Queue: 2 jobs
Job 1
Amino acid sequence: MKFRKYWFRRKKEESPWPVYGEEKPRIAVNIILFITTLATTLLAGALQEGVNPLKNPEQIFKGIPFSFALMGILLAHELGHYLVAKKHGLNVTLPYFIPAPSFIGTFGAFIKVRSPVRDRRMLLDVGATGPLVGIAVALPFLSLGLWLSEVKVVQGQMGTNLGSSLLLSLLSWLIIGPVPEGYDVVIHPVGFAGWIGLLVTSLNLLPIGQLDGGHVAYALLGERQNKISKYVFIALLGLGIFGWQGWLFWGLLLFIMGFRHPPLMDWWVPLDYKRKVIGWLAVAIFILTFIPVPFSGF
């Protein structure tokens, strides 16, 4: 099944540890970046709807469905990290959004944890909550977007094929049903935002270095995570050579960031049963949302 997107168309637990390096938050930069990213995603959504912002600036509002859905997913992901980190008494910044002149208008968002994560429980809570909250918000947007999408014969229009994951294929089968041969799903902007949410979730859950998935894998498996990082890196290089070349770029970034996860101060503190379940749930979500070839057919 092909999905196609057109760019032009006719506190439960308190930490016993003190907060380190606490300082008065400076939120002006966070607010400016959020507003700027809201504007760039709004523009990206309008362009996807065929709006020329120079000729018809009054129609930029057509980008609202895509922009608000995508910003909501990214904000939910980062607030998941932020709130759990604060619950554990960690010194953490508010989210920094990254505007970008790209077809989605952003390079994502991030937070900075300024104090040490001391044990595996803290690490898993902070690492897993962002992707879990993000996917919980992305799924309703994706489902609504699939329901609003069209199934049609596609000829002579500029666009690209969006890759599918196990979870996306299941949702599409449940909501749209079988797609006849020669037809594509022309995905609605809200659905496209949900698709990006799934992609962002899977990228963050790669069990490498200090990505969210690296935190989860280290909390579950300890030093074995460092070997897993290398195996996953080799697999990404293979996908980049024989599939989507964008994986080579991601591989380069991950190589620069490093494969090893830094050791924890209180490494002997064990995970309880509930956290083990949450950790393996995050692993399952990574498998279900991973898209081997995100884009094709430019």
Note: Residues 3-12+25-296 form one domain.
Job 2
Amino acid sequence: MGFQESFEEFKGSKWVVPAYIVLVIVVNVGLVFLNQCLATILIPISMFAIPYYMGEKRFRFFLLLGVIVIFANSAIVGLLWSEDVMNYTVKKQTSSDENKTITNGIFTPTVGSADTVFDFTLTITTNETNLGTIRVYAHLSEALEYKEGSGEIYEMTETDTLDSDASDGKDYHLSIVLPKGLYATHFSADVNGTSVDTLYYDTLSDAHFKVPGPYNADYWTIYAWNFQLILTFMIFTTILYFIFVMMYWWVGKSRIERTKWDTRLREAGELEATDAKIPDFECTNCGRAVHDDAIRCPHCGAIFEEGEEEEMEEEPEPEE
């Protein structure tokens, strides 16, 4: 038996539904990690194409699959993201303008518990000769709500108060116990009335954090946060998937309605059977070819429209 024959036999087995559900979930999780922008388009396509190729033609199963995948993907990706967070290595933040530079902006540890003391440090370098007051700040806000001007601001302390030369760098630090939460951090400095910060500004001049953390929460709080993020992403992709499914339903419904209409015309004598050049269509349940005037699939017994079974008269079975 060749591959095609084996595959056709598998498509008719009881294992085909769990097989394509698992395959869709694995493919979609991989797409999220590969490229989230590309995944927005490819996930809905794969959610429809994989089951369809494996013989699924039932509209209701496509709807059910969408619900299963959105929660399964959110749960799995949330789990993987949470593992990444627990092992996250923070990057040092930097920023500069013409006269001053922030370097080595960092906090340790990245993940802690309720009584963890977090240390924030950075270095300010400036070439200004008339050095006045320098104020340095660590900005923390809830990661899901982070934006410019939000959250708490903590002033940092100069490490060496006797160091009056900032041309080779002045170090600042802050040690603090934070309330339980998931944070994002950036640093800012005010030198002689002008400021510099490590925020990222996009084309709309809307400020965003560069570095997430520290995370001062238990594992399940971090997991719930990641689950919420991926679920929001999956909702948009699933809406697109349901649009594909509704288009598929509409095409199938249109074929059935056209067949019924032409059947009525033939019965009324307004359309000869030889004039009805209507191709056979596929059963929405088993996918096999069905005659145009069929109301019930001769292969699997599926009725093509709800209520049709009550309207049609059953033909008596021939006596043996």
Note: Residues 219-267 form the longest helix (49 residues).
